[in-house]
Automatic annotation (TrEMBL):
<dbReference type="InterPro" id="IPR055170">
    <property type="entry name" value="GFO_IDH_MocA-like_dom"/>
</dbReference>
<dbReference type="InterPro" id="IPR000683">
    <property type="entry name" value="Gfo/Idh/MocA-like_OxRdtase_N"/>
</dbReference>
<dbReference type="GO" id="GO:0047837">
    <property type="term" value="F:D-xylose 1-dehydrogenase (NADP+) activity"/>
</dbReference>
<feature type="domain" description="GFO/IDH/MocA-like oxidoreductase">
    <location>
        <begin position="155"/>
        <end position="273"/>
    </location>
</feature>
<dbReference type="InterPro" id="IPR036291">
    <property type="entry name" value="NAD(P)-bd_dom_sf"/>
</dbReference>
<dbReference type="Pfam" id="PF22725">
    <property type="entry name" value="GFO_IDH_MocA_C3"/>
</dbReference>
<dbReference type="InterPro" id="IPR050984">
    <property type="entry name" value="Gfo/Idh/MocA_domain"/>
</dbReference>
<dbReference type="Pfam" id="PF01408">
    <property type="entry name" value="GFO_IDH_MocA"/>
</dbReference>
<keyword id="KW-0560">Oxidoreductase</keyword>
<protein>
    <recommendedName>
        <fullName>D-xylose 1-dehydrogenase (NADP(+), D-xylono-1,5-lactone-forming)</fullName>
        <ecNumber>1.1.1.179</ecNumber>
    </recommendedName>
</protein>
<feature type="domain" description="Gfo/Idh/MocA-like oxidoreductase N-terminal">
    <location>
        <begin position="11"/>
        <end position="137"/>
    </location>
</feature>
<comment type="similarity">
    <text>Belongs to the Gfo/Idh/MocA family.</text>
</comment>
<dbReference type="GO" id="GO:0000166">
    <property type="term" value="F:nucleotide binding"/>
</dbReference>
Amino acid sequence: MAESQFPLPTIRWGIIGAGAISAAFVKDITLPREHAQARHIVSAIGTSSLEKAKSFVQDNIPSVPTPHIYSSYEGVLQDVTVDVVYIGTPHAFHKKNCLDAIAAGKHVLCEKAFAITAREAEEVFAAATAKNVYVMEAMWTRFHPLVQDLRKVLFTDKLIGDIRRTFCDFGQDHKLASLGPESRLKNLDLGAGSLLNIGIYSLTWGLLTLDERIGMEASHTEILANQSLVDGVDVATAILLRYPATGRQGILTSTSEFKNDDAFCRIEGTEGYVLLSGPYTSSPRNFSVWRNRSASNSSFDGLQQSEPVFQKGYDDVGFGLYREADAVALDLAAGRRENKIMPHAETLRIMRMLDEIRRQGGASFPQDGESSS
């Protein structure tokens, strides 16, 4: 097929924060790709020092021209060559970083968890609406093609019948005992804990596999939650997500003490189940569909087949973060101010769930007591 005669939309990015996730993002969006949907240019980087910013560029952005380098975030926000600001700072800074970018008239892609509390997220979206700028939470997993294929299997083709339960775990061994109190993984002022860092992915898989709808259209859910706290930081969270209208349940967990297996999620239905696998719960690589035996005779009823009836694997260029960047570019080219896969209402729904999980589990942050400014 001939290539399109129309030029790809081009986005000039300003990067706020020079941590690991920002490094992965800029590497991904600047990789050569077949069938790319947009062209991405890293135009500016802002961090706490010029030395840190220069090192970040040298290690992660081999492209030409060299990005503008600033020893403050404000430099990025005032840079006229920046179209969209990518925010890769710790959770606790997301609200301020977003509001500052919005005030400067910049569009925003902000890492998950989008904020510390739902109240903070509401404030950001209100500001974006008033300023007419684009804002999206960077929940990159939702843009993986596996998600669309999986939801078709579950909700359109109904290959496992009526969905009844989803089990999902995300565990990473963060070796917390070896970290200092200033680490974002241990410092409550920065939003530390397994829930906002990785548990949000387990929750997301539960929502994506138990309900076809998202955002304001999503079904009502009930939550029971428990957390294990060390010095106030949740090192493990367990969530029971229940859908009263259907009786479906999600058993969704996270831990900062152990690495989970590659098979991180199991979705059970009345006629079979689906297994999801990948190096991380955030990074799916394949899924397989298993059907229950239907032989009427007997002892084999209900047991799985020896081979899946359907399976699909996915290769990737880089880490896969470019997909959310492409989505931003396509939305802006079309004049949209929010994304249909990750709309504001879905981010707010998840933030409210995270608030309730922490309320029940006991983890709290200084921001919980703050009023909207």
